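Appendix B, example 12.
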Amino acid sequence: MNYQINDVRLHVEDHGHGKPALLFLHFWGGSTRTWTEVTDILSPEFRCVRYDYLGWGQSEKPETGYSIKELASDTLMLIKELQLDDYVIVGHSMGGKIAQYIASLSPAGLRGLILVAPSPAFATFMPEGMHQNMLVAYTSKPGIEHTIDHVFNASGLSAEVRARTIEDMQRHNEAARVGWPEIAMKEDVAAGLQNINVPTTVVVGDKDIVDTPERMKKEVVAHIANAEITIIPQVGHLSMLQAPREVAAIISSFVANKL
């Protein structure tokens, strides 16, 4: 289903019933399909909402709109359009940075925050060589394969999930692809972190070399009141694809025990 949000057409998947609703935000290179295995498990119990950011998947691909604050505005407008008044945001990587900024605004209806290998809300600057590699990482299939195996540390994906993920990482325009390393990664949206007053948990794989457990403790958990961390063994940066049952169980337990 498509919705017109901030003058841009966004593709949305909305399945299941029950409160709180779960709103899933994907990583740089992902789509609604990033969360398929997790929401298949959870949708019998919860309303699960996923959407493709502008520039990715089946959503419209404009030339502008790729800052964290602009992406957060899209999310907040979608929440309003869908009339979500009791919801938990589940944000992965770049989606985790968006989620932190949204939570810092204390929007009505937000009950909890689940951050899966989230990019910190602070500005991140990469060494120039790594930055240049990011700019071209998704421009070829070999580059994507390398990213999955050696950056995301997710070489054990099933053939079906791997093929789908590669396809998703190719479904973008240039503005979306460079928007993360050139704009959103460098954006500092940490000023309001002290305003986050909902239960928060950070989920990270112990083999994640992008957002390591140590980085998560220092740059995310330490800055959000009463945030907790759960570490999944033998998992890299794509835990929802590598260990969907474990991620779904963490989400279900969070809702049952923290809200």
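The mean pLDDT is 97. The first strand starts at residue 2 and ends at 5.
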